[in-house]
Amino acid sequence: MEQQRIARFTHAGVADAEVSVHPFATGDGLGLNLTRFRRNDCDDVVLLVHGLTTSSDMYIMPEHTNLVNHLHDAGFGDVWAVDLRISGRFPYNSEATRHDLDAIALHDHPAMLAELRRHIGDRRVHVISHCVGAISFSMALFAATVTGVTSLVCNSVSLTPRTPRWSKIKLGYGPALMEYVLGPCHLDPRYANAPLLTRGWMLAKAVAPFHRECGEPACHMLSFMWGGGKPIFTHAKMSPVTHGRLPDLFGACNVNYYRHLHAMVKAGRAVKRHPRDPRSAALPDDYLSRAASVTTPILFLTGDRNHVFTDSNIVCHRTLEKVTPGLHELAVLPGYGHQDPFMGAASDTEVFPQVVDFLKRKAG
C-alpha cells in the first residue's frame, strides 16, 4: 500500500498539546507568526527559530520524534516556534525586495519576543536556533535589539560564518548572475518540477549531474543552493520519508541574502550589510564588538560533516572563549552535517538530549 502523503504545513506531528497561532507585525511592515505548542505551563519557555527557507515545520515533523515533542516529554511544556520573513511558509523569499540579515535582527526578532512576552510575561526564555536564524538571532542578541534571553542554542553557525571555497564563489557571483542573467531573483528546490524548458527547469537539469549521491532533484538543488558541492546533511541520518518531502520542508531563497552572507564570510564575522544606511543605525557595524557585554550562555552545535558552514561554530566558540571565558559551550556531533541535527531520524537520541541537558542546567 502506498504511504499516505504528509500534508504540507501541517501541525500533525505534535501530539497531546494545545496548538495556537499568534500573528504579529514587524516594524517594516511584514506579517509573521508564532505558533504555540502548550502541553502545560512551566517556568521555562522554549522558542524555536528556523533557518533560511525552512520554517517552523523543521521542528514538528510527523515522521519521527520531533524537537517539540521531545521538549514536552523532557518537562518543557510550553514551546513556541516562529516563522520569520525567511520562512518557507511565507512568500517573502520569492519577492524582489532585497531583505538582508540586518532587517531580521532589527525587526523580526524584537517583534517576535515582544509578542511572546505578551503571552508569557517575565518567565525565562530559552532560544534554539538554526542556520540563518541562528546568525540573525545572535546578531540581535549581540546588538541588544533583544534582551532577557536565558540561554541560546545555535546550530551550524552563529557570528563567524565560514564556508567551503566553492560556496564562497557562489556567494560572490551567484546573486548578480541570477538577477541579471539567468533570472529570477530567487532559487527554489522545486525547480525540477517547473514547466519544461523554463529557466528553473533548465537550472535543475544542469545541477543534477554534479550530485550523484541520490536521485531526489530537490536534494540536488539544495546542495547547489547551500552546500559546498556536497549535500546539506548526511543522508544516512535522514529518514527516507523526510528525504522524499524536501520540497515541502524547504522553500525559495532570495539571492540577496547571499550578498550579506558573502560580506560576513569575507570579514570573518557578522557585519552590517550597509553601514551608511540610516535605517540600520541602531545596529553595530561589527556584531562581535559588544561581545563582552553579552551574558547569555550559548551552546554552539555543529556536525563534524558540515559542508555548509564548516567549522563556523567551532571558531565562534573559540573567539568568544577569549572574551568571556567559560560562559559558552561547544558540542560537535559525530556523523552529522548542517541540517540533520534537528531533522534527522535519530536526532531524538543522538542530538536532542544534549540540547535538553544544556537547557536544564541553565534553567532555574
Automatic annotation (TrEMBL):
<comment type="similarity">
    <text>Belongs to the GMC oxidoreductase family.</text>
</comment>
<feature type="transmembrane region" description="Helical">
    <location>
        <begin position="127"/>
        <end position="153"/>
    </location>
</feature>
<keyword id="KW-0812">Transmembrane</keyword>
<keyword id="KW-0560">Oxidoreductase</keyword>
<dbReference type="InterPro" id="IPR052542">
    <property type="entry name" value="Cholesterol_Oxidase"/>
</dbReference>
<keyword id="KW-0472">Membrane</keyword>
<keyword id="KW-0285">Flavoprotein</keyword>
<dbReference type="GO" id="GO:0016491">
    <property type="term" value="F:oxidoreductase activity"/>
</dbReference>
<keyword id="KW-0274">FAD</keyword>
<dbReference type="InterPro" id="IPR029058">
    <property type="entry name" value="AB_hydrolase_fold"/>
</dbReference>
<feature type="domain" description="AB hydrolase-1">
    <location>
        <begin position="45"/>
        <end position="157"/>
    </location>
</feature>
<dbReference type="Pfam" id="PF00561">
    <property type="entry name" value="Abhydrolase_1"/>
</dbReference>
<keyword id="KW-1133">Transmembrane helix</keyword>
<dbReference type="InterPro" id="IPR000073">
    <property type="entry name" value="AB_hydrolase_1"/>
</dbReference>
<protein>
    <submittedName>
        <fullName>Pimeloyl-ACP methyl ester carboxylesterase</fullName>
    </submittedName>
</protein>
